[in-house]
Amino acid sequence: MADQKAISASIEVENRNKARERRKLLMISLIGLVCFFGIWELVVRVGLVPIRYLNPPTMVVRTFFTKLMDPKPDGATIPVHFWASFRLALCGFVIAVIVGIPLGWIMGYYKIANRLIRPLFEIMRPIPPIAWIPISILWLGIGYQAKAFIIFVSAFVPCVINAYTGVTLTNQTLVDVSKTCGASKWQIFRTVCIPSSLPLVFTSLRISLGNAWSALVAAEMLAATQGLGYMIQQGRNFVRSDIIICGMLVIGISGALMSAGLAFIEKKATPWRTEK
Amino acid sequence: MNQTKEILKTIGFTMLSIGLFLVLWTFLAVRNPDFLPSPLICIEKLGQMMGRPISRVSLGGHILSSLRRVLLAVFFATLIGLPLGLAMGWSRKVNAFVAPIFEFLRPIPPIAWIPLVILWFGVGEVSKVFLVTLGAYVPILMNTVTGVKMVPPVLLNVGRIYKASNVQILREIVLPAALPAIFAGVKTAVSSGWMIVLAAEMMASRSGVGFLINRGMEAYDVAMIIVGMCIIGVVGYLISIVLTFLERRLCPWKTNLE
After folding, report:
1. In the CATH hierarchy, which top-level class contains the domain B45-250?
2. What is the ipTM of this complex?
3. Residue A241 and residue A174 share a domain
């Protein structure tokens, strides 16, 4: 009895220590953030860095709220710019997924398809999506098609490769079991290989979404009349660092949100996957 | 016997696939030569570009100036990322202090920094190296942190039992154990740096491979763009081969993680 009491008491002490440690680390994190924003604010307010080059965080927040409604000086409000970028990203991305993933699955399952298509992929793979910007602008103009094409290219290659790898890594035992139970080739492909490739497919989607988002920003900076990349480029032309920083934060936060959204869909789509 | 047959089959299909691709390309090129020059014209263009300098820099010079920017940036990124990553992986307090700031800045793609960096440093060499550094330090830092955190506790305990000082543990145990992860980070950093340098050079530059393809766009010279893209791809591929080779030499104890 006494032993048990001692044990539970020591567990209690241990838990309390752990909680205290967590609180301490949380405090340090908060101090870190406060220091970061404080120094940022101070160097500008004191005049170490001219306000032309760096706007303090408070002004950036204020600019964000005015830009929500006010189209000056670059011609559109933040929601309009955001929607322009987001629509493009979504459009190119969805096409890449619809074309790329089934192609990867087929390449993974049918050897002939793999042998025919694979070499072309290996040639295209080392070319970064950004290198496609000039040629797609020449081919498709500076409208939305060129940018949707760039997004498509940057998402397409990882989609195909990961869908392919996912299918080839299917557990052979599962395939054998279904064969023993008399499943047809098509049934095996549909009910065993495809589900087992999904986790890898989702990983590739998250990676390629990040790539696509930054390629889109680059394309919008080079040639566009709308979009978040255009907004920050105009911010530079007007020497308005508040607009640039505000745009950068919107780009960063929306990118992070999209990737979180994909992670959520992944969880819904692959419920059999255990948490690690 | 069976194996050679398999290899021959693969080679045959590869040739077939590339052949079909070239035929399709030529077919499309004959129909709109302005839009898409044929493969022959592209090869001719490559010869021309190798012979005559483009805006006073030879083709090799363009490649070298891009490479120099990337390597310089990766060097600076390692200089910042490695010590910071070691400190963050080693001490939970340092990690708690730095990680939120890092997480706040990380989702912003390096390319989105271009306007601000140009505003700060102009369009010169400094701004390009700075931009690539911004993109390159992220994987180095993250991999170092993970590498240090993943060091097996057994190794650390052995060090402690033999009364190694903290510096000794760090130098003799943590660093070698984390080296494969760190090097993987450097590899990622170089390949993403190769992409960022393109963007930086396309925005404002007088040299570099990004300048080449942008110049092709401005001159409406599709052959030049295609040659430039091929060069970018080939150089990127060679970089990754060299890095894989270096990795094997530098950390032969690396076990395959897959």
Report:
1. mainly alpha
2. 0.83
3. yes
